[in-house]
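User: Here's a structure from my thesis project, written as structure tokens. My advisor, Dr. K., wants to see whether a designed sequence matches the one we expressed. Can you design one independently, without my sequence as a hint?
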């Protein structure tokens, strides 16, 4: 077998794992009461016309914003494409790092801003949000996932503990941009959905003192320890009808974090499937909540 064929098979194995690992539910879930009040949610039941109108309005307002993201490539252990949005203000500004889901896999430097990924990337670039909270938005693209995987001869690769190669390169880009641009390093935020949600858990587990807050949507399974995250402001979203990554995955992880002493917010939407990001990133309170977080030092 040639080296090229071996590499191709490895990549396919990783992609199979990315799509399949999210479907593995946790064995058990211990319910833990949330003693902290989460920010208010938008009015209306998740499937009501009142609530879905916010999603439709976002799609209209976000049209064409992806063209304002500059295309770049980071040369690390492999070439990682990425897109970056710059605020019009010249002062020091926060940075939002977004890790795409499996629909963004590739190296075209486009898909991480398309499909369902538009919600987690373009919301911060909306003129109304840039007026109130000017910020940089970073959207890297991976072709092999974010978390750490162990190859298997008997099936698809599986997620294992350890800093993922994808998240490591994304973090390298954050550091490089912080040297180049006037970024407020006390206000670095990270978020992701599905595969990128797992990547977010992985990144904050291995760099817990870097980010001011994290937002996670239907993150798939990881083997990362949540104990280092007890101090980190975190808002997790999941649809209770998710057929791709069962809601029990989020419930178990949030329960473990609370048992360790953390105080994450957790929002479940009744009747919502895997595309929970459409609801999460159109919550009006999310923008204010995120940009109010900052590291103490």
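Assistant: Designed independently from the structure alone:
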């Amino acid at each position: 077998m040639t080296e090229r064929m071996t590499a191709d098979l490895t990549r396919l194995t990783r992609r199979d794992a990315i799509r399949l690992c999210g479907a593995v539910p946790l064995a058990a879930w211990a319910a833990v009461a949330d003693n902290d009040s989460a920010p208010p949610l938008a009015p209306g039941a998740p499937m009501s016309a009142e609530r879905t109108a916010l999603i439709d309005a976002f799609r209209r307002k976000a049209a064409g914003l992806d063209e304002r993201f500059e295309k770049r490539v980071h040369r690390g252990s492999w070439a990682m494409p990425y897109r970056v949005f710059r605020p019009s203000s010249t002062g020091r500004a926060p940075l939002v790092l977004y890790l795409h889901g499996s629909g963004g896999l590739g190296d075209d430097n486009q898909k991480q801003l398309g499909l369902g990924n538009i919600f987690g990337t373009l919301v911060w670039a909306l003129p109304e949000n840039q007026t109130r909270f000017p910020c940089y938005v970073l959207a890297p693209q991976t072709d092999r996932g974010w978390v750490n995987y162990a190859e298997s001869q008997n099936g698809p690769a599986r997620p294992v503990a350890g800093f993922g190669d994808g998240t490591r390169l994304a973090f390298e880009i954050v550091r490089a941009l912080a040297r180049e641009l006037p970024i407020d390093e006390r206000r670095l935020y990270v978020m992701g959905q599905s595969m990128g949600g797992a990547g977010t858990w992985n990144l904050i587990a291995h760099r817990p003192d870097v980010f001011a807050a994290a937002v996670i949507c239907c993150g798939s399974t990881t083997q990362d320890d949540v104990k280092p995250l007890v101090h980190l402001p975190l808002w997790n979203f999941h649809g209770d009808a998710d057929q791709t990554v069962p809601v029990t995955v989020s419930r178990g992880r949030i329960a473990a974090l609370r048992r360790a002493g953390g105080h994450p917010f957790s929002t479940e939407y009744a009747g919502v499937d895997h595309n929970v990001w459409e609801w999460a990133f159109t919550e009006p309170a999310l923008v204010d909540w995120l940009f109010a977080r900052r590291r103490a030092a």
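When you compare it with your expressed construct, this may help: The first helix runs from residue 3 to 21.
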